[in-house]
Amino acid sequence: MNIVVCVKQVPDTSDPDTEVHIDSTGRGVDESKFSFVINDADNYAVEEAIRLKEKHGGEVTVVNIGPEGANQVIRMALAKGGNSAIRLFDEKFAFSDIVATARILHSAIKDLSYDIVMTGCMASDDGFAAVGVTLAQMLGIPHAAMVKHVEVIDEKKLKVGRELEGGLMEMLEIEIPCLLTIQTGINEPRYASFKGIREASKKEIKLMDLSAAGLGDDMVGEAGSVAVMKQYSVPEVGELAEMLEGDAGETSTKLAQILKEKGLV
Amino acid sequence: MNFELTEEQKLFKESIRDFASGEIAPVIDEYEEKQEFPYEIQRKMAGLGLFGLPFPEEYGGCGADFVTYAIAVEEIARVSASLAITVAAHTSLGSLTILVSGTEEQKKKWLVPLAKGEMLGAFGLTEPEAGSDAGATKTTAELSGDEWVINGTKCFITNSGTDISKIVTITAVTGMTGGKKEISNIIVPHGTPGFTVAPAYRKMGWHCSDTHELSFSDCRVPKENLLGERGKGFKAFLKALDCGRVGVAALSLGLASACLDESVKYAKERHQFGKPIGKNQAISFKCADMLMEIELARLATYKAAWCADEGRVYSREASIAKLFASETAMRAANMAVQIHGGYGYIEDYPVCRYFRDAKILEIGEGTSEIQRIVLARSLGL
Fold it and tell me: Is A238 inside any structural domain?
């Protein structure tokens, strides 16, 4: 069971004090104020891929689009049990939308021998939740999104569970090869051991730029995108909003008063 | 000069930080409250290699450097000083002594399970009447035929009474040479008749670390349990103590960092007189001082660990790091409680535990006073 798992590095927002500021171009954020970590859902995808490998054999290839700094995220996935990795980077990749992003991933994955391609179901920074399914379309393979259960039936088929609203689990069979976008909570991701980390330093991270990916200038970045990001902005506080200030005791008292006045309680 | 951690060190730091916040933080208060040793967490920590970091792979260890070891202890201590001292005492005192002085057979028999974290390492030096004055050791071991017959008492021994505490290495007087006590190290397996482990101490802090008084009454162990040369026990122990001091420095660093994190968080949340208390310089300057001292303690600690990795003599660096970092931790804990006001004095806020956990750092593995003696002597005074 050969598995390709796509991982993205995203700003670490686990610390509530992380400050996100729009940079001077208005199309990016000031990256000096935070560190990068693996996207949460991708972390679960890595774990699921490694568990399947441990149970059924095969290899796990980690694929990433990112600058050199993304190596930390890739090495951590390798330390947990990934076998090898591909990192795609070219300055021309900047401002790629989901279609261009999927195209870049596709260029590296299409020539690999895989049974399953996994992505996280959504990136915590841009929240599109669309690269996985777009990639499936480009690879010409079936997909299942928001997957919270994976079971191998035989060499040709998987049984997967999709998490729906209201706690419903939709069970379906899907043919191999296929693409699964993995939902958080599907497993308990492991922590990398020291030995795993040392092993990871010996594993290969293959680099691919635009030409190695076999793509043209017009297929990536803004030129290759169907949606172009124009500007970030912080929503202004609306006139109808009242911000309650003070400590927890004061604000809860004020809130109770307002709810009472409006006849809501 | 390069202050950058290696990629391996950075990754391990991140992994241990995630592990500590994901696996230790959610459950540690319960263990602390019950004063119960957290076997489940210890087992998981062993799986990450935390009990064998600086030991060679051939003896079940990770083959990591001491800087990595210091980083790991620091990260664990940010969440639990109890677990950090469990690792530190196990590594530097309980296990390193066997690596440094053990025979090949002793290393295979004891170091391998220790490094894998299947067993916890313990070292018994302190006695009721021999603390800083280790030369006052009264415990005796007399050679009788093929056995050492041990009599005496050891106190404050970390890791000595858990279900996975299988041996303790003790210092004992094995005779007199030229009017001086001849001190040797001897490995005593748990369960040996005459070896009794007293119930756990009720300590001010470190509530789920395991600490006991041990007594030996005509306790017989095989002659080959002598660790290192007869009469060289004290010297071997001092060597382990240098590493032990780096471990306590790293622990102090982690605890002090936790004090700062909680203080900054609280200073932003807590409002008095219509603004966050952190907007008052009386509070923000305390945090600034903590930040500065922690950074200096970190430099001293990593430098001592680096010296150990370089194979240099590092007694002075280890003493400086231990002394400065432990006093930094105590000051940080004191300021953290002060910043929290009344809330800092109740167990609902973690700084209350940090304060209780900090004091021992100025005492264990050589008191602050002993460190100053070491440093003064190094100046020829």
Answer: no
CATH superfamily, region B123-231: Butyryl-CoA Dehydrogenase, subunit A, domain 2 (2.40.110.10)
Query: Among candidates A7, A12, A40, A2, which has minimal Cα distance to A205?
Result: A7
Contact criterion met (CB < 8 Å) for A76 and B268: no
Domain count across chain A:
1
| CATH code assigned to B7-115 | 1.10.540.10
Set B75, B293, B327, B365: catalytic member:
B365
Q: Which pLDDT belongs to residue B142?
A: 97
Listed in order, the ranges of chain B carrying CATH 1.20.140.10 are 235-378
For B170-179, give one letter per residue: b (16+ CB within 10 A) or e. Answer: bbbbbeeeee
Give the closest of A72, A195, A246 to B11, CB-based. A72
B105 flagged as catalytic = no
Mutate which: B14, B43, B271, vs A, most A CBs within 10 A? B14
* Neighboring chain A residues of B68 at a CB cutoff of 8 Å: 194
A103-131 confidence digits (pLDDT tens): 999 999 999 999 999 999 999 988 999 99
Residue B144 bridge partners (DSSP): B147
Q: What is the pTM of this model?
A: 0.92
First to last CA, chain B: 31
- Residue B216 forms beta bridges with which residues? B152, B195
Question: What ipTM was estimated for this complex?
Answer: 0.93
Assess if residue A234 is contained within a domain. Answer: no
Residue of chain A whose alpha carbon sits nearest to that of B271: A247
